[in-house]
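dumping this here before i forget
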Amino acid sequence: MNVETILRTKGSAVATIRPDETVGAAVKELISRNVGALVVSEDGETVDGIISERDIVHGLADHGAALLSLNVAEMMTRRVVTCELSDTVDQLMAEMTNRRIRHFPVVQNGRLCGIVSIGDVVKNRLDEVEFEAQSMRSFIAGA
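structure:
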């Protein structure tokens, strides 16, 4: 199973925000979209950074309420780990665990084409386990 399979099920929509927007605007966007991270992109096609709930919590500890008026570019994670459509779910699980990352923007030929979260990976794995269990039950019942 690979990233492309997950995106086929979940869709390729990505919540993005411009780097010149405020952190307050990012918080509102996270809440309205019910997501844990926004890809920061000047043009909606390239990945300039990512801002997550974790980034905001760290910023709150450092800046207090003034954080909300800072630009996203000041708080975003700049070194974004991305994946490609051909990457396997096993590779993503290992990277998410090793790097303690919960969101992977999907980039193909330099263009943003989706995002995969740890929730997407877990759902995919649960679906695989359920399919395998159902197949075994069908096999046993038919044997």
